[in-house]
Amino acid sequence: MNAPVLPASTATRPATPLLDRVRVPADLRNFSAEQLRQLADELRAETIDAVSTTGGHLGASLGVVELTVAIHAIFDTPTDRLIWDVGHQCYPHKILTGRRERIRTLRMGGGLSGFTRRAESEYDPFGAAHSSTSISAGLGMAVARDLKSAIPGAPRDDRHVVAVIGDGAMSAGMAYEAMNNAGHLRSRLVVVLNDNDMSIAPPVGAMSAYLSRLLSSQRFLSLRELAAKMARRFPKTLERTARRAEEYARGILTGGTLFEELGFYYVGPIDGHNLDHLLPILRNVREADDAGPILLHVITQKGRGYAPAEASADKLHAVSKFNVLTGEQAKAPPGPPTYTRVFADALIAEADADPTIVAVTAAMPSGTGLDRFARAHPTRCFDVGIAEQHAVTFAAGMATEGLKPFVAIYSTFLQRAYDQVVHDVAIQSLPVRFAIDRAGLVGNDGATHAGSFDIAYLGCLPGMVLMAPADEAELVHAIATVAGIGDRPSAVRFPRGDSTGLVELPKRGVAVPIGQGRVVREGTRVALLSLGPRLADALKAAELLAGEGISVTVADARFAKPLDTALLERLARAHEVLVTIEEGSGGGFAALAMQHLAWKGLLDGRLKIRPMTLPDVFIDHDAPARQIVAAKLTARDIVATVKAALG
Among all residues, which ones are annotated catalytic? Predict the structure, then answer.
């Protein structure tokens, strides 16, 4: 893989005298509180400057600068485990943990991942990119610590486990499942709830900080334990009453009753940008060995300390390269619309004509294009938060009542709701329509966000209709096609990024007969059967092969399921070599096609079939074109495959 290209000049980088002294987090532990405040300012400036040259998730990282400094200053990382949920906010963490020299390679081929990654650093004990996993992973580490310490003769393991989770990630059921289990197990675990939307707590101030410091202190915890021991001497009814009184009294003061009910000792809310508050409270939490699981609630501001981010509606959540002084992001030259926008406009056109069409997204309205749909049909668009499982079953419920739900979701996120797709949709044959964005490789977001497996995991479901349009016009027709399917589930997968701009987009799609592919070039010796946007490379390969005297048929399958079996059998009978091409994993379209050909006996004779799929590895982040080269799915790779088959 090519090494990333670094910026040529460092002349404009901010002065960072304290940060320059930090190689690993242990260096922070000799700094005074005043020095840590200066370090946080320098770390914020360094983060802004680095992301201005690479692009990436800026707003979330700026919001946790002080929290990152405080955690690394108080806890003994990497011996103490620090787990970041999602990973959008991990850039300051990477800078402090020995990766500063490479921070300007973020999301580039051969550079740092945009998320936490175990293979990258010992300071990343758990990889992330999907949300709401940190508490479960942290609880697993805490239980492992306790079990290993209990082995006869084993040394005592006193390490701490800290999981940082954002308030958005708390909308996912997995977080509450983990908290419920942690409260039951009573394992020593610290969860930091990073509330950057004021969505849970009222405004905080000096009194709230004082109460949090008091309630997290060892003196209060000891008094609480003494009171609990005394209460246990009372009759059970009085014991329960005393315990409830203490919990609800603290809940009235702090707002933590929900977390107390889940078994956590709640501390907060506190100002997540005030190190005078953070440092002593984190120190108290670290020393609270007998409190069981603790939830520390901190209030932060996404985009903190950078005026363009603070003024932006999305707090500059994800940015391209930008001008540090103005915040203006580098814009690509005008070009064709993205596939996401083509999908959104196609869905709007269908919804304009059909009032029963509704749309569902799991916290990704802009990423899936449903922000456009919501402006056109505000009462028919539903954002359910980071809750993919709920999104699918919610849509299934609407389908039972005659609505036509479209669940717009990234391929990699739909994996999280696979049980609901199977149990609540497919088994009941409900006409839920899945608009699967980011199908195939996705560039700088890497393996965690690549839509590699949806053909395989949906293609095996009885009754599923699975389409993969070859271009943006075919996408418009595909949306019209699945809109008309009323007796079974369906899905349309399409890639990330700009469309080709080489085809004229219809104002409204025309439904395609279910399971019908098309031949786009006739030949005699070799057949290339493509599913999805690799059709363009198949046509290029055919031209290259024709230049060498090899006659090639090129066909667009359109459907992975149901297969166009008549077309497939004709290609197999009339050609010497059949190559299937898809931007998906093994076990997908090629497997479905070969299974059918095997049962028809068409693999018994002279036919040579070669499946071209994504390789059996996770492909790292890189430029999309380089990823396709790494996957060996270019036109030249198709030519090489054909020549090898022909001998």
Answer: 302, 388, 416
